[in-house]
Amino acid sequence: MQPFAIDTVLRIAAMTGTSPDPQVQESIDINPACEVSLNTLADLFTRSYTNYFVPIEMDASSLSWLLSTQTIDLASSVVLDVDGVLAGFTFISVRGLSQRVAAMGVLPEFRGRGFGQKMLKQCIENAREVGVHKIVLEVIDKNAHALAIYRQLGFEVSRQLVGYQHEAATADRKFDDELHEIDPREVAKAAVHEGVGKLPWQISAESWYATRPPSRAYTLERSVYAIVSQVTETSARLNAILVPRTKRRKGWGRRMLSALYRKYPNREWLIPAVIPEDVGSDFFLANGFQRHEIRQYEMVLRLDEASTRYPYEA
C-alpha cells in the first residue's frame, strides 16, 4: 500500500456498486462498534478491502494506532450486522461538537446493496441526538456514485483537496542544516500560536497533537517545523511543514525540505490529498513537487444553526 493511500480510499469500498434490491428481505442491525473486540474489528477492516485496488491489512495493534491518531470514538462508530454476519463498519472521529467520517468498509459480498448509506444515516441520526453541529468527510472527486449519495444525505462540497509527490528529491548542497527532533505537540502549539485556522481535519493542529510514533517531528532553529510519517526504504510522507509568519519568504521551507532529504535520502516524498488547493501550491511546485492525480472534495453536513454562523474549522 502506498503511504498516501489510506487517507484517500478508506470510504470508497462502502460506496460503490448499485442500489439494493428491494425484493431481498434481510435482518439488518447497526450497532455501536465499541461492542466488538479490536481483533474482530481489525479482521472486518481487512476483509472489507479484500481484492480492492488498494488492499489494507489491519491487526489489533495497527487498528489501535489508527483509532488514537485519528481520534476515532468507537461508541460513535458503528458495525453492520446482516443476518448474523458482521458485514461492514463506519468509524467516526470526534472533536468537541464536530465529527468526521474517518473510515468506511463493507465486505465484498455485501457491496452494492446500500449498506454504506444505511450505516452513514445511522451515524448522522446518532450525531443529531447528542447535539453534534457538523460532520465532515472527504471523497475522491471522480467518485460520482459516492458524491451523489453524500449529497442526498445533505453533505455539501466545501473545497477541493490536492496532494503532491516528488519522485527524485535530493538535498540542496547549499544547506547543511541539522534537524532537531521535537515532540509533535510542539508543531501543534506553533500552529495554534500562528493562528493557523480553517485547515482540513487531517492537517489541523488537533491532528498534530494526536501524532505518535513512528511518526517524527523536526525543527530547524524553531524557524520551521515538519512532521514525517510512514517512512519506508523507498518513500516517506510529509504530514506537515510550518513556517512562522516572521520567518516566511526567507528560505526556511526549502531548507527544511533539504534537511529532510538528507536524513531520508533516495526516497519518493508523498503528501496525501488533504491540502486545500489554494494552500502552499506555489511552494510545493517551486520545490520540485507535482500534484498527484488523486484529488478529493471536503464535504460538510451542518446539523445545527451554529455551524452556519461559525464556519468549519477542524
| Global Rg | 20 Å
Largest sheet: 12 strands, mixed
The CATH class of the largest domain is Alpha Beta
Q: What is the subunit organization of this protein?
A: single chain
Mean pLDDT: 89
Q: Structural class given helices, strands, pairing?
A: alpha+beta
By DSSP (H or I, 4+ residues per run), the number of helices equals 10
Q: What proportion strand? A: 25-35%
* CATH architecture group name of the largest domain: 3-Layer(aba) Sandwich
Number of domains: 2
CATH superfamily of the largest domain: Gcn5-related N-acetyltransferase (GNAT)
| CATH level-3 fold name of the largest domain | Aminopeptidase
* Dominant shape: elongated
H and E string: HEHHEEEHEHEEHHEEEHEHEH
Question: Could you explain how this protein is built, in words?
Answer:
- This protein is of the alpha+beta class and 314 residues long.
- The protein has two domains: 6-161 and 296-309, Aminopeptidase (3-Layer(aba) Sandwich), CATH 3.40.630; 170-266, Aminopeptidase (3-Layer(aba) Sandwich), CATH 3.40.630.
- The protein is built from ten helices and twelve strands.
- The chain has helices at residues 6-9, 38-48, 60-69, 115-130, 144-152, 184-193, 205-209, 252-263, 281-286, 306-309; strands spanning 28-32, 78-82, 85-95, 98-106, 134-140, 156-166, 180-182, 216-219, 225-229, 235-242, 268-276, 290-302.
- A hairpin with a 5-residue loop joins strand 9 and strand 10.
- Mean pLDDT is 89; it is low at 1-9 and 309-314.
